[in-house]
Amino acid sequence: MTFASLGLAAPLLQALDGLGYKTPTPIQAKAIPAVLAGRDVMAAAQTGTGKTAGFALPLLQRLAESEDKVGSNCIRALVLVPTRELAEQVQSSFRQYAEHLPVSTYAAYGGVSINPQMMRLRRGVDVLVATPGRLLDLFSQNAIKFKQVQTLILDEADRMLDLGFARELDTVFAALPKQRQTLLFSATFSDEIRSLAKGRLRDPLSIEVSPRNSTVKSVKQWAVPVDKKRKTELFLFMLKDRRWGQVLVFVKTKRGADELVDALLAKKIKADAIHGDKPQASRLRALESFKAGEVQILVATDVAARGLDIDDLPQVVNFDLPIVAEDYIHRIGRTGRAGATGEAISLVCADEAPLLAAIETLTKQTLEREEEPGFEPDHRVPMTNGAGQLVKKPKKPKVKTGRSSKGVPSNWVGFDDAPARSGGRRPAGKATSGARKSPPRGR
Ligand code: AMP
User: Fold this and answer.
1) Which of 26, 77, 183, 422 is least enclosed by beta carbons within 10 angstroms?
2) pTM of the entire structure?
3) What is the DSSP letter of 384?
């Protein structure tokens, strides 16, 4: 199949040729003809599937073909995205695809001055990529009018809801013309997403390019059980021991991101952080240095990392598990992209077992666990039962001889980590300290 056979016009084909896109990805093959035909679309597609081109190419073609000229402070298409980074990335894709078309594009997001955005909007913009909060600021200041909007695209809609934009989305829907084309893209389809779509999309074509709520297949994923306080030490060890190159590391908090970067810099490892407290310019700088290979480790929080377009990334490390299970899918979408294989490694401590269970429920798979010799946790990470639930700790029978594992039922796997890893299995509860190899059993 070719892009030409999907009905795309010469100026777009020329841009795609320049970018080296040869064949459409599965989502593009399905979405492009539908969007060109004016249909509403509801697509479950993860980052890395080529979804941006799936909506951007046909949208640009429709805009170029229409006689409509954009008026002052008006826009003809609105692309809503959850974060500034994604806004930049989507806008940059639009700009590349529109290289040979007379269609203007612009990105507006918060965290930067609103005045230049107001100035630019005066001339009107064909495609506006925006985050919901800033869009409504502009709208309330009359810097933007929606009367010419013919297409609305919600990109990473699940993430917008996770970030608490539900009310903003309601306001935008209420302000937009009722006659319009609506495209909704989401990594996963939750009940909330379905109810967001209900009554707002007209007979949408439903597209799912990978099994529902599944993770990308070309990514090898596993978990390393470890005590919370030893995560940094373990990460440094694995980085060296496994000769990792560039790694994108996800952490839970901004403070955690800064602390890990400090620990890496102290070891003379080039690292930078990208999180919500950093100004937009320094986030973009960190991303650019990472892409240019000047920074080896990029440490990111979920919000900041959303939408980062980084290809050929061999390793993604979940230093902390995400609070929202769906973020796991977004995170590991950073590796194994465009057919390449990747590894996603999660450092999991005992406290995080419920988060692990939630991820396993969502992805419908049990993450394989592999202890790192010398880092076996003192606080065992409870086993999950494959259905995403924690296996309850069975009551320990009273054993007179105290610390021996005798008396523990032989089928007790509840708090034992790695399945069948020699030397790694030991009963829970006995605290040890420092780095050491697991003692062989029976010693
Ligand atoms: P996305 O899922 O939209 O974030 O796209 C993932 C990456 O794949 C981006 O770097 C795109 O430039 C690239 N890409 C999208 N479509 C194609 C294609 N048909 N052929 C090659 N690369 C593509």
Assistant:
1) 422
2) 0.59
3) B
CA 318, 324, 325, 326 dihedral sign is negative
Task: For the chain, give percent helix, strand, coil, nearest 5.
Answer: 35, 15, 45
CA of 165 to the centre of ligand 1 (A): 27
More confident residue, 331 or 260: 260
Among candidate residues 208, 243, 273, the one where a domain is terminated: 208
| Residue 71 included in any domain | yes
Residue 441 located in a structural domain: no
C-alpha span between 393 and 99 (Å, rounded): 61
Pocket test for ligand 1, best of 2, 32, 46, 52 (most atoms within 8 A of CB): 52
- CATH code of the domain containing 160: 3.40.50.300
State the residue range of the domain holding 52: 4-208
Return the pLDDT at 293.
85
Binned at pLDDT 50, 70 and 90, residue 270 comes out as: very high
439 part of a folded domain: no
Output the ligand 1 site: residues, CB below 6 A: 21, 24-25, 28, 47-53, 309, 311, 337-338
Whole-angstrom distance, CA of residue 264 vs CA of residue 420: 33
Find the 354 Cα to ligand 1 centroid distance in Å.
34
pLDDT digit string, tens, across residues 5-15: 999 999 999 99
| Residue nearest atom 14 of ligand 1, based on CA coordinates | 50
> Which residues touch 8 (CB under 8 Å, ≥6 apart)?
16, 32, 36, 57, 58, 61
